């Protein structure tokens, strides 16, 4: 493996999240349920909800635990639901938040879970959107950073469970 290359510094990550919060704030309210996709989305969801608070938006918070990668670098092609919604979504707007969009399987599954739980509208936000060779079943409503087609780690993204806690984003290819 080559030496990791920093693609976005911690400061650039923070600035991207703040810009995204300013775009999201006008379209949500305090009854919106922000749904974090665990595990990778945790870092982004925490920073995004703090940035939304700075925009005077205080949405409800929940999480869904989905798994599609395990410790591999490629999706298994199916999504395992390890824990679903805990907060009622009936009659509410839901904002699903994840770290990175690759195939779109997890984001699509989460959107379906929220709709099945009675959400009136489901919006999606990802920190990083990677290029994909074929059309995805879902494209996010909000994207903080258009990422290169590289193996990313840091800021929630991992390599077999490592590097999630880095405040910057690195390439490991």
Report the average pLDDT across residues. 90
- Shape, principal axes of CA atoms: globular
Structural class determined from secondary elements: alpha/beta
Strand order of the largest sheet: 4-3-2-5-6-7
Overall description:
The chain is α/β, with parallel strands linked by helices. The protein has one domain: Rossmann fold (3-Layer(aba) Sandwich), CATH 3.40.50. The protein has helices at about 10-25, 40-55, 105-115; strands at about 5-10, 35-40, 60-65, 80-85, 95-100, 120-130, 140-145, 150-155, 170. A 6-stranded mixed beta sheet has the order 4-3-2-5-6-7, sandwiched between helices. Strand 5, helix 3 (about 105-115) and strand 6 form a beta-alpha-beta unit. Helix 1 crosses helix 2 (about 40-55). The longest helix has 15 residues, at about 10-25. The chain is globular, with a radius of gyration of 15 Å. The mean pLDDT is about 90.
Summarize it:
This protein has 173 residues and is an alpha/beta fold. The chain is 24% helix and 29% strand.
Summarize the topology.
Elements lengths: L4 E4 L1 H15 L8 E6 L2 H14 L5 E8 L12 E4 L9 E9 L3 H12 L4 E9 L12 E5 L5 E2 L15 E3 L2
Parallel strand pairs: 2-3, 2-5, 5-6, 6-7
Antiparallel strand pairs: 1-9, 3-4, 8-9
Helix pairs in contact: 1-2
Features:
six-stranded mixed β-sheet; Rossmann fold; three-stranded antiparallel β-sheet; 24% helix; alpha/beta; 3 helices; 173 residues; globular
């Amino acid at each position: 493996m080559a030496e990791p290359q920093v693609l976005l510094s911690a400061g650039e990550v923070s600035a991207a999240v703040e810009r995204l919060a300013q775009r999201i704030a006008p379209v949500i309210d305090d009854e919106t349920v922000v749904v974090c996709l665990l595990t990778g989305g945790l870092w982004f969801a925490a920073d995004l909800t703090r940035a939304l608070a700075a925009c005077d938006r205080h949405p409800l918070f929940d999480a869904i635990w989905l798994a599609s990668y395990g410790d591999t670098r490629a999706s298994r092609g199916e999504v395992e639901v390890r824990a679903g919604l805990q907060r009622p979504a009936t009659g509410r707007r839901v904002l699903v938040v994840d770290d990175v969009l690759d195939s779109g399987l997890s984001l699509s599954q989460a959107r379906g879970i929220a709709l099945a739980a009675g959400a009136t509208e489901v919006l999606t936000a990802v920190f990083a959107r990677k290029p994909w060779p074929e059309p995805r079943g879902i494209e996010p409503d909000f994207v903080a950073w258009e990422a290169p087609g590289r193996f990313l780690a840091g800021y929630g993204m991992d390599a077999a469970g490592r590097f999630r806690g880095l405040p910057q984003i690195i390439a490991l290819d």
